[in-house]
Every structure is written in structure tokens, then in C-alpha cells.
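Write out this protein's structure.
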Amino acid sequence: MVKEAVMPGTARHDREMAIQAKRNLSKTTDPVERLRLQCLARGSAGIKGLSRVFRIMDDDNSRTLDFKEFVKGLNDYAMMIDKEEAQEIFRIFDKDGSGTIDFDEFLVTLRPPMSNARKEIIMQAFRKLDKTGDGVITIEDLRGVYNAKHHPKYQNGDWTEDQVFRAFLDNFDSPYDKDGKVTKDEFLNYYSGVSASVDSDAYFILMMKKSWKL
């Protein structure tokens, strides 16, 4: 049973990462890196938040964005990027020159790079939580692996067990559109943010093992 609602040190890492990202932002000229740092400056869920904005704009479910949608998405998410920079980023991702970009590919590229060892331990944690094995973590999945009764708000009667589970899932969910479900991609996006604030593979893996009793 996992007792803690979030990874130990996550809030602290988030703060450190956000400060570091803001600091690096003034030093880098690479447009993709600048966009990545602006997302990370919002904490671990920053990239995921942007992905949700794009998903909302994708009216026809094509999983692609044209330049106008791309710019509107950046503006809606209050990214400080001028039109020239947006055009440059769009060109980098529009590899075939079709005038649209595949936003799954865009988000994977935007995610801070992680070693395979880190990805593997993140997926181990995901598989442990995804009891039903359907590729999405829900409240039902958590019943068997996460003990809500240790949560202070459950103990003092403020929250029901389901509210504790929901708050737990919301940690990994985008701040703008919480649906109570966490996909593999959302889980990876969240931890790529955490990972960006931890230098050593060994420490990251140890942190994950302790948090999720892997």
C-alpha cells in the first residue's frame, strides 16, 4: 500500500525546477528550449497543461494543429512567445511542410529528455497503479494500491475516501482540465517535469522506488 499522496520532495523539486527554468530562460535563444522552459517554470504539470489546451483546440480530433491554432493555444496558455518565434517553432515541427503539426510528436519533443532507466521506473510505477491494466489510472485502480485512510483530511473527516483518491489523481492531471483519469502520457509528462529537477539517475530511481514501493 502506498501511503503518501505525492512523491516526497515533489513540491520542493517543483519550486526548484521552476526557479531554475526561469533562470535558464534568460540564457537560451533556442526557441524550442525556450518554450520548454516556460512550461517547466509552471512546475511539473506545465507541459501537460499546454497539451490540454491544444487538445481542446483540436475540434475535428485530427490530433494536428495548423499555425493559427498553434498560436492561439500558446496565447491561451499565456506563453510569452512572439509571432516570429512561434513561426520558427512551427517550422521545426512541421517536418513535411504540410502546414500542420502532429501535437503528440510536438509534446514528446517538448518533454525534457529522460534516460531509458528513468522512463522504465516511471512505467513500473504506472503499471503498479493501473490495476485493471487498461492504460489509464482511475479511482477504481487506486482502491487496491493506495491507502486513503492515512490522509490527514480523511482522518479529520473533511474528505471521503473517493475525495482523497481524486485529489491524488489531480496531482498528475492538468491544472486546467482535471478529468480524474491519468493516462500513460500524462504520467510520463508529469514525471519528466520532476525528472528535470533531479540530476542523478540513481537518486531519481531511488526516489521512485521509495514512493511507490517498487
